[in-house]
Amino acid sequence: METTVVLADDHALFLEGLRSLLAQEPDIRIVAEASSGAEAVDAVQRTKPEVVVMDVTMPGLNGIEATRQIVHQYPDTKVLCLSMHGGSEFVTAALERGASGYLMKDCPLEELVKAIRCISAGQMYLSPSVAGVAVSGLMAGATTPSISNLSSREMEVLQLIAEGHETKHIAEKLHLSAKTVATHRANLTEKLGVRGTADLTKFAIRHGIASMDAPGSDD
């Protein structure tokens, strides 16, 4: 039986290589590709795939928030996170947002194919290298500052802050008032135990919410 898959990654060469490798599997069919979280959500809406292979760190809408939206809006579609980030905060946040699996990008092709098949069959899949990390992260809970403690809206605001957007631009982009954005910013600094835009940006980059080439704040 054929499994339909959407690939989401903002690195074109990696995406092309992934497509070429998976195309060799007779039971896997790539139905769409995306280079951002927003494009991934749109692709799922159009194609209704069984599985999305999702990069965690992408511009505009990160993979963790895109995972939440997809799982909420399209419960028949399963999300497999494929990332270079293996820290407990990434794995825990992805699983709490509804991901059905998590793999590192340096995993063998055979493991990726196995994970896609497992997830399409309704099972969970964690690579051995992150399974222990996931358990530790879930046991730690909210005892340490973590992206898993943030709401979806706070994640969006944090990403946009780290990408250098001013408060008024964030408000326009998310259809919020400037006062609401300021409240989210204050909640972020309190929850994460940081001070100011620079610290928020560093936290976002360190935790894969924004990339290293994010321009920084212009507030």
From TrEMBL:
<dbReference type="InterPro" id="IPR001789">
    <property type="entry name" value="Sig_transdc_resp-reg_receiver"/>
</dbReference>
<dbReference type="GO" id="GO:0003677">
    <property type="term" value="F:DNA binding"/>
</dbReference>
<protein>
    <submittedName>
        <fullName>Response regulator transcription factor</fullName>
    </submittedName>
</protein>
<dbReference type="Pfam" id="PF00196">
    <property type="entry name" value="GerE"/>
</dbReference>
<dbReference type="InterPro" id="IPR011006">
    <property type="entry name" value="CheY-like_superfamily"/>
</dbReference>
<dbReference type="Pfam" id="PF00072">
    <property type="entry name" value="Response_reg"/>
</dbReference>
<dbReference type="InterPro" id="IPR000792">
    <property type="entry name" value="Tscrpt_reg_LuxR_C"/>
</dbReference>
<dbReference type="InterPro" id="IPR039420">
    <property type="entry name" value="WalR-like"/>
</dbReference>
<dbReference type="GO" id="GO:0006355">
    <property type="term" value="P:regulation of DNA-templated transcription"/>
</dbReference>
<keyword id="KW-0238">DNA-binding</keyword>
<keyword id="KW-0804">Transcription</keyword>
<keyword id="KW-0805">Transcription regulation</keyword>
<feature type="domain" description="Response regulatory">
    <location>
        <begin position="4"/>
        <end position="120"/>
    </location>
</feature>
<feature type="domain" description="HTH luxR-type">
    <location>
        <begin position="143"/>
        <end position="208"/>
    </location>
</feature>
<keyword id="KW-0597">Phosphoprotein</keyword>
<feature type="modified residue" description="4-aspartylphosphate">
    <location>
        <position position="55"/>
    </location>
</feature>
<dbReference type="GO" id="GO:0000160">
    <property type="term" value="P:phosphorelay signal transduction system"/>
</dbReference>
<dbReference type="InterPro" id="IPR016032">
    <property type="entry name" value="Sig_transdc_resp-reg_C-effctor"/>
</dbReference>
<dbReference type="InterPro" id="IPR058245">
    <property type="entry name" value="NreC/VraR/RcsB-like_REC"/>
</dbReference>
